[in-house]
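Supplementary Text 2. Reproducibility record for the structural model of the 469-residue chain.

All settings were left at their defaults, and a single model was retained for analysis rather than an ensemble. We include the record here because the model underlies the residue-level annotations in Supplementary Table 4.
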Amino acid sequence: MSVPLDIFSEEFGELVNDLDAIDRIRGLALETAISPRSWPQLALEATTLKITDGAHKTPRYVESGVPFVSVKDFSGGRLDMSDTRFITEEEHAALFRRCDPRLDDILLGRIGTLGKAVVVDVDCEFSLFVSAALIRPDHSKIGSRFLQLVLNSPDTKAKFDAVKVGGATHTNKINLKDLRSILIPVPPLPEQKRIVAKVDALMAQCDRLEAQLRERDTRQSELARAALARFTEFPTPANLQLLFHDSFTLTPADLRKTILTLAALGKLVPKQGAWESLSLSDAAAEIVDCPHSTPKWTNEGKICVRTNQFRPGHLDLTASRFVSEKTYLERVQRLKPREDDILYSREGGILGVACRVPSGTEICLGQRMMLIRTGKTLVPAFLEQVLNSPFITEVARSRTTGGAAPRVNVSTVKAYSIPIPPLAEQRRIVAKVDQLMALVDEWEARLTATRTTATRLLDALVAKLTTEP
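Retained model, structure tokens:
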């Protein structure tokens, strides 16, 4: 039965809005179409006439001659001999007696790049390197194109992963004896042909949609740049919402960084007073580093915060760990955290994140963080926003030390140049940032819900199109 292309056009057009969705459709098509049902499972060698590999030693290359194919020549999903190297007719003749690739054979990556299968679609002689396996299907049992789909399916790739050898300092490979014993589903030939026709039609539609999306993205990127320039010049809620377009490449994270940058540079609200710039050590009332020891954890007691609880502008206390009263008192000797103090991560994967201590919370500091207490010249929420802005985080990341475990030194943090507008202006900036961030949060929630729904619908639609006769 023919594939209902009208469903592709009508339903996929509604659901596919980005290139990631196209990739997901392709993956789902293979996963669903080849998923085991009531089909017999046979060893690969039981469905083939030959399984072998290419030359086990590097040949002598010449300027022209017979193409010598390796995995790189079909890693793009099809056999491409436009950039192959060449060997002599004599050396090819010796290799071809054992490994003789023909039209409609399968080439499979078995060393380095594993499991990438392509059908030989050229009718000319060539030789293979050892990194490629040659599989000749028995067409009385299995079609070449169907076998290619099976070998590229997630189920078979998982089987390859289970039998591969190597790893760490050695290149991964699949031994021929293991390849021959891989179990694959083998439906009747008419059903194989129906599956191939459906998958091919779906892939062709994906190719068309991908081309349309790339063309659309080119146009949308120009619109996004114009909309971002307008928001940067006139940072109003209305102009921000012009950027809430699903097809723009701007993400909620990008917009938050833009908002914080504008805030730190004095471009978010009209300036109504003189700004000055001070080092953080001069602008803050107190700055202390955390204790340099791992606390002894307890099942209950006082909260000892860790940097993995930090989010820009938010301290997540839902998964806290605890220390005893004695340990707590030892760790707050230098400075006891209080409401609106700023915690700053200076080491690890979330380096350069600032969040305030919430009200009604008794905490002490874990490791890899600093505590900053503002003075009379700084509104805590404003300093928190400045420390989270690219204006500061880019400075922090450019001055890290420690190699594999990057960190920013306390002296570097204290030397940060902090913009200081009048207090009233700081409060207006904080209010404007909060207003704009709330809009971004709402958009992100809608975006997540829309994508979750689209993913579920795509899963169901691909399953329907690849399994129904």
